[in-house]
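Problem 12. The chain below contains 98 residues. Write out its predicted structure in token notation.
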Amino acid sequence: MATKALLVRLEARPGKEGSVEEFLLSALPLVEQEPGTKPWFAVRFGPSSFGIIDAFPDEANREAHLEGPVAQALGARADELFSTPPEISYLDVLADKL
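Solution.
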């Protein structure tokens, strides 16, 4: 069972919506190499609003993900792609169906 999760909200800079979508699609192969990240979703909330929703069996796997290649790439491209810094919410999972 997943016990920890993240919700990351991303607001694209005007004209960068396509680049944000491409970035999120390119992150999937990196996340697939993380055995402790299950599930992982890249989502679109609206025309320029995107997000990542992912869950982990424990805090150690959540922290490993936050230090991993997707987080590093996100940080490296944040100023280029996003109008505001990524908003990261730390969540506790009460129940899941995977």
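Discussion. The chain is about 35% helix and 30% strand. Students who got a different answer should revisit the alignment rule from Section 12.3.
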